[in-house]
Design brief:
The chain is of the alpha/beta class. It is built from 10 helices and 7 strands. The structure holds nicotinamide-adenine-dinucleotide. Nicotinamide-adenine-dinucleotide binds next to helix 1, strand 5 and helix 8.
């Protein structure tokens, strides 16, 4: 199956590590050019070097995506080098544990900015380019929007908004033939996940418990498995799929987790 992504340019926010890095790698393998926006220049350079070493192409731009992001400057920096943008993967974010008992309003608002305000900002910033190419948008989202997790109100609210904006933009952008979909992740072992699990009591035991409750094959979702769905949604092969919230989670959200005990 040829995804027809060759020589196309895709913005991937938070593409230097974890799920974003897997998306960038898989895009480069298909001959596309991932344009990574990431907060840490050292991490950006590492992923660029790794993609180049594997024979792919990649560009990186350093930016912290939050309420202070200067989108006009970001637009200028990127479009000076790349006139055409064929898609955006909104992915940057972190489960930052701002809850009712351990948070406050300022931290809650900050969490929203770090996790969803820039989804809006990035799409609005490159909307004209997307209109020209009839590009596609994929929003990475979390199961927390649907299942809750406890102690993470900001992240939960931001992920609810990621899903809502997927539907909202799918409708608003129909006149431009721009498709908008979300890929929901449940449990994927990334640098962020590794840090998060360490904050829990008895992290090794807890990790074992989580893994055993993932219905399909009792294992975590590999970042590449998420990336493959994202690439399909970016490609013209999914040309009549829009406004969909797709779970790449081994059945974690929708299947009866008691089935994991049936052998
Ligand atoms: N790992 C999981 O199990 C899981 C589960 C559900 C949802 N997600 C979602 O997937 C996305 C990626 O998560 P991951 O686990 O790959 O994280 P990660 O921390 O391993 O990688 C994310 C990358 O994005 C960068 N980044 C994060 N916020 C940024 C910001 N505001 N501005 C600029 N750069 C920023 C980080 O520095 C890092 O390089 C997040 O939006 C997260 O909500 C992950």
């Amino acid at each position: 199956m040829d995804l027809q992504l060759k020589n196309k340019n895709f913005i991937v926010t938070g593409g230097a590590k974890g799920i974003g890095a897997a998306i960038a790698f898989e895009l480069a393998k298909e001959g596309a050019l991932p344009i990574i926006i990431g907060r840490n220049q050292h991490d950006n350079e590492n992923i660029q070097t790794a993609i180049h070493a594997a024979g792919g192409q990649c560009a990186t731009f350093e930016a912290e995506l939050n309420e202070r992001t200067d989108y006009a400057a970001l637009h200028q920096r990127i479009t000076t080098q790349f006139k055409e943008i064929h898609g955006i993967v909104n992915n940057a974010g972190a489960n930052d544990g701002v809850g009712l008992k351990n948070g406050n309003i300022d931290l809650f608002v900050k969490s929203i900015h770090k996790n969803v305000t820039h989804y809006f900002g990035t799409v609005q910033c490159f909307l004209n380019e997307l209109i020209q190419t009839k590009g596609a948008i994929v929003n990475i989202s979390s199961k927390v929007a649907e299942t809750g997790q406890g102690g993470t109100s900001g992240y939960a609210a931001a992920n609810g908004a990621r899903n809502a904006l997927t539907r909202e933009w799918a409708v608003e952008l129909i006149p431009y033939a721009i498709r908008v979909n979300a890929v929901v992740v449940a449990e994927s072992f990334t640098p962020l996940y590794q840090e998060w699990i360490k904050t829990l009591p008895a992290p090794d035991e807890t990790l074992k418990k989580i893994i055993s409750s993932i219905p399909f094959e009792n294992r975590m979702t590999k970042p590449e498995e998420i990336a493959h769905m994202v690439l399909f949604l970016l490609s013209k092969l999914s040309s009549h799929t829009t406004g969909q919230i797709i779970h790449v989670d081994g059945g974690y959200v929708h299947l009866d987790r008691a089935i994991t005990h049936i052998k």
